[in-house]
Design goal:
Blueprint: E1 4-12, E2 18-29, E3 32-37, E4 46-50, E5 56-68, E6 71-78, E7 99-100, E8 103-104
Antiparallel strand pairs: 1-2, 1-4, 2-3, 3-6, 4-5, 5-6, 7-8
């Protein structure tokens, strides 16, 4: 089951017009998410996200995932050097240390 939430998103669109608007974030993870928005964004551009608790983080648009009916879904990744992204979603994600090459490993005692 994928996690999703509403966020505020601001930045500049492909036409260099500034915007601030609500967006839907899906597939939440500790590195970013997929965001659905009705703006045409440029891959590589940086946007600002605001969560429901008022937390803010910068993220880079890394890919256009889908576009239909005037809405586009973009993959975003947090810009790591900004500490605000550490727990932006308010969720504790597994560290992944129990996974190796896609195979679950038994915990060592």
């Amino acid at each position: 089951m994928g996690l999703s939430t509403s966020v505020g998103l601001s930045g500049e669109d492909r036409q260099k017009c500034s915007f601030t608007m609500p967006a839907r974030a899906t597939n939440l993870n500790k590195h970013g998410a997929a965001v659905q928005i009705t703006r045409d964004l440029t891959v590589g551009s940086v946007v600002q996200l605001r969560n429901k608790n008022g937390g803010q983080a910068s993220a880079r648009i890394v890919a256009l995932l889908t576009a239909s009916n005037g809405a586009s879904t973009y993959a975003i990744e947090f810009i790591e050097h900004e500490g605000g992204a550490t727990n932006f979603w308010g969720i504790s994600f597994p560290s992944g240390s129990h996974m190796m090459s896609g195979q679950c490993q038994e915990p060592q005692s």
